[in-house]
Design a protein that fits this description.
494 residues; alpha/beta; Rossmann fold; Isoleucyl-tRNA Synthetase, Domain 1; six-stranded parallel β-sheet; elongated
């Protein structure tokens, strides 16, 4: 059996979950479900990033103990997995004891190799990004473009540094030998250009006296790990790396004997450098195999094209959308109406328009039209003629045009294909008027209706990775030969 590993990034838990993370985790879930449908054994990781100055500050402002603060907020993200119907196999927290031990083990290995050292330095620091900023990365006002509402801090202190510069040539070789390492290609060009300009060593610790909320540096009680060094380790600590039981690491990361090793990481475009360069350099230092694909999402934007972010206070809580419209309605919009790789807007007006046109008038109406006629005109004997066999279902999901979209992680293209079929089938039903034909020519009308149901079954198969609850409902109705008692997607007026 082939093994497949996929992970999202870990969101900070300094506020409620927002729509941008929902988009990322849903996309990763679609890929995981698709791979399972092909017979792969899948390990799907997600979790929460729970160290760093932002969390320390937020807890302090809230007047609660930092651990209690992250416990409360981590639970919101854990609950979100169930709310979004995510099929994750692990939910790792960076305050977990096994993760802390793994991060410290990775530190020791890199330090023993000579890739971690101490030095004094001065920098401009964005607390929002938890990262140093070069002048070339700042906007015309000298602020971080991602967190323009936060003032940069000037920091001068002694820290540990990682010898990132040691891995410039190895990263170039990694990119050269793996033409699809970063998807899409324009993001790949960005990171290749970044490395071509030359790599600088980066800080991997903070003074505990200034920022106590972090994993202790091994053998130095005055320092805690820089949050990025700590958090990136989750991708292997979740598999048991650095523990006495690393069987999942061997199975899903090393994948010995798998002719096409697949270790996939999803992230936003603001994570491009960390996932496709920083983390890969750390893996090289530790003598661990690199990832195989880094998939880069664009941003979700609001009115006026401004990025949605917690720091800007313009986010939409996915829980609010689900409570009114249902989980599959949100999954549908984020997969079909949002670009797989470019920035895309999310406004409630745009969501409602798509909900009514694509789900109420599209998929919901199609299902009701076909099954209403089926229940009225088809017998149990007819029913057996349109049941899709399991082997046919597998062939559909393995078809070349489906495989192409999934191999390229272009879920938006896959979604558009499904809705083209929905639109074409709705059009055919309107034009052919089977409900009239079947009254005068039972055989011809029945054949046409059976064909409609077979096509509806095919649509339900395609929908399974995207909208699993809806897919299951449609299949259940087809098997029972019953029309929906209530609309799949009720029309909701403004």
């Amino acid at each position: 059996m082939k093994n497949f590993y996929i992970t999202s990034t870990l969101p900070y838990v300094n506020s409620d979950p927002h729509i941008g993370f929902a988009m990322e985790i849903i996309r990763a879930d679609v890929i995981a479900r698709y791979k399972r449908s092909l017979g792969y054994e899948v390990f799907f990781n997600t979790g929460t990033d729970e160290h760093g100055q932002k969390l320390f500050e937020s807890a302090k402002e809230s007047g609660v103990d930092t651990q209690k603060y992250v416990d409360q907020n981590a639970q919101k993200f854990s609950d979100l997995m169930k709310l979004l119907n995510i099929s994750n196999d692990a939910f790792i927290r960076t305050t977990d004891e096994n993760h802390i031990k793994a991060a410290q083990e990775l530190w020791r290995i890199c330090k023993e190799k000579g890739d971690i050292y101490k030095k004094n330095y001065k920098m401009k620091y964005c607390v929002g990004c938890e990262d140093e900023k070069q002048d070339s990365e700042l906007d015309e006002n000298g602020k971080c473009p991602i967190h323009p509402n936060r003032e940069l801090e000037i920091r001068e202190e002694e820290n540990y540094f990682f010898k990132f510069s040691n891995y410039e040539n190895q990263l170039k070789e990694l990119y050269k030998n793996n033409p699809n390492f970063v998807i899409p290609d324009f993001r790949f060009n960005e990171i290749k250009n970044f490395v071509e300009k030359g790599l600088q060593d980066f800080s991997v610790s903070r003074l505990k006296s200034k920022m106590s909320w972090g994993i202790p540096v091994p053998d130095d009680e005055e320092h805690v790990m820089y949050v990025w060094f700590d958090a990136l380790t989750n991708y292997i600590s979740t598999l048991g790396w650095g523990s006495n039981n690393d069987s999942n690491f061997e199975k899903f990361w090393n994948q010995s004997g798998n002719e096409k090793r697949e270790v996939v990481q999803y992230c936003g475009k603001d994570n491009l450098r960390y996932q496709s360069a920083t983390w890969q350099g750390m893996l090289m230092s530790a003598g661990i195999l690199n990832s195989t694909n880094i998939i880069i999402n664009g941003f979700i934007t609001g009115d006026g094209g401004m990025k949605m972010s917690k720091s800007l206070g313009n986010t939409i809580n996915p829980k609010d959308v689900i409570e009114k419209y249902g989980v599959d309605a949100l999954r549908y919009f984020l997969l079909k109406e949002v670009s797989s790789f470019e920035d895309s807007p999310f406004t409630m007006d745009r969501f409602k328009d798509s909900y009514n046109s694509g789900l109420v008038n599209g998929l919901g109406n199609l299902t009701s039209r076909i099954l209403t006629m089926s229940e009225k005109y088809l017998t149990n004997k007819d029913h057996s003629r349109y049941a899709l066999e399991e082997e046919l279902q597998k062939k559909l999901i393995q078809s070349d045009f489906v495989k192409l979209d999934f191999d390229n992680f272009n879920i938006n293209s896959y979604s558009q294909m499904i809705w083209r079929e929905i639109s074409e089938l709705n059009k055919a039903i309107t034009e052919e008027e089977v409900f009239k034909i079947i009254k005068t020519d039972i055989e011809d009308g029945t054949d046409k209706l059976i064909n409609y149901i077979s096509k509806l079954s095919r649509i339900a198969i395609y929908l399974e990775p995207m909208m699993p609850k809806t897919s299951e409902t449609i299949f259940s109705l087809i098997k029972k030969n019953k029309k929906p008692e209530t609309p799949l997607f009720p029309r909701i007026e403004n």
